[in-house]
Amino acid sequence: MSDIKERKPENFIHNIIEKDLESQKYGDRVHTRFPPEPNGYLHIGHAKSICLNFTTAEKYHGKCNLRYDDTNPVKEDTEYVDSIEEDVKWLGFQWDERLWASDYFDEMYDCALELIKKGKAYVCDLSADQIREYRGTLKEPGKESPYRERPAEENLRIFEEMRQGKYRDGEKVLRAKIDMASPNMNMRDPVIYRIAHTEHHNTGDKWCIYPMYDFAHPIEDAIEGITHSICTLEFEDHRPLYDWVLREVGRWPQPPQQIEFARLNLTNTVMSKRYLKAMVDQGTVEGWDDPRMPTIAGIRRRGYTPEAVRDFCERIGVSKANSTVDSGLLEHCVREDLKTKVESRNVVENPIKVIITNYPEGKTELLSLENNREAPELGERTVPFSRELYVDGDDFMEVPVKKYFRLFPGNEVRFKGAYFIRCDRAVKNPDGSIKELLCSYDPQTRSGSGFEGRKVKGTIHWVDAASAVKIKIRNYDCLMKDDEEGGQSLNPDSLIETEGYAEPLLGEAKPGERFQFFRKGYYIADEKLTTEDEKVFNKIVGLKSSWKK
């Protein structure tokens, strides 16, 4: 206990936990859980909850369960279960137990019987629309159901008949008997069981009645011995019902407590699983793991690292107030994580051929380039240099704008790791486009030669034309754009595919391997599309540019 007392709380949730440890509310136990519903792929918002629940358990030497809230058989699929487990492991966590809410269906049914016997629950024949109408408004109390005072014996009989499959979907429900005049709408006799003649992935056709989430959730927590049930802020108004269920069932002397925190909202990012599923179903994106998607599968394929995501979740912290985080912070965390980990490579897009007219024909020399200026331990590599090269299309302007220090007729630049090159003339195609640049070099200016003469303002990269490898490049931007009215719309430029030339070493890239494309950004060889014969690279995150068109 002493080491816990000495630690300074990192957030208000940890503050609550440390007070509970001090008072021995749950003894020395801290037990959390991550309870996803397997009805879709997890997104970056879920990553915050995963990190919070698992790191909290780690900090206090406790346990964290992975529990599937599979109480709605209509929407659930084993594909989602597999993806959830992959996501949790990718983030670097391992659950203590993997559990299913459906494993507790028998005990939940017994709890419902207990409430009926106590006069705290009743079978209602009103339709869903009628229940909604009877519920009232925020300003007006609701009306009591005409079935509210059914005798307990009759409720028990009908509820058992519901279980046996005697009634159709929606024909009857079981409701908690609380207070139809409560200012909290969730306490106005909420439905706790509904009929659904649907086979369940775990229990098969054993059940045709299923508990509602607000009834199942507190019981699941209590059965598992959860101490602190951490969930997002939209469940704050449901907490009185959470406590009511545990109190009225009365089986747990020290029931768990629910604590709410603000969910993650990111600029230019959709956080609705329903909306994301619609985009997948409609073919707006390539799938749940489309690198533009905010799903954990998507950002993993995009090239984000688990270390960066965990760093991001730690930086944004935990609060009670809803706010929107700039997605640039997540990109910053990715950039910070990669900057000393990956090697640099030269890649040019929209290539323009450069012919160095005074360079010896047939000669090729190998030049040494550093792999990562910020990580000297990553060493150097050699790249070929010859008379014919390619430069990036953005590195030439026939009529330069102000403060443009790259190639233009009469200007001299340094080719990274090579020589000073002067652009003498641009040769054009019949349509007016640039065919090639005729340039000259100063052999006395080879990098590393100690030349201390004239200086140039621009340094650009290049690839050797004879040995260049052709690659496909997928430049990604955010999938959605925030508008001034607070809404969002699809970004038509979220994916721009181009082809480019790369230095020879990129021809050996393996799927999932990351690189910095010099002066462009960080890229990853796409895990699905990259083969021995074709190299496809996804843009992970860009670099800060000194100049933009």
Structural notes for this entry:
This protein is α/β, with parallel strands linked by helices and 549 residues long. The protein contains 13 helices and 30 strands. The strands form 8 sheets. The protein has a 7-stranded mixed sheet with strand order 13-28-29-30-24-27-14. A 7-stranded mixed sheet has the order 22-19-20-21-15-18-23, with no helix packed on it. The two termini are 60 Å apart. The protein is elongated. The longest helix is centred in the N-terminal third of the chain and has 16 residues, at 44-59. GO terms for molecular function: ATP binding; glutamine-tRNA ligase activity. ATP binds at residues 37-39, 43-49, 232, 263-264, 271-273.
Q: Give the amount of beta strand, in percent.
A: 25-35%
Radius of gyration: 31 Å
The number of helical elements comes to: 13
The SS-based structural class is alpha/beta
Distance N to C terminus: 60 Å
The main β sheet shows up as: 7 strands, mixed
List unreliable stretches of 5+ residues.
1-9, 545-549
Say how many strands there are.
30
Mean pLDDT: 93
Residues in helices, as a percent range: 25-40%
Across the major sheet, the strand order is 13-28-29-30-24-27-14
* Shape call: elongated
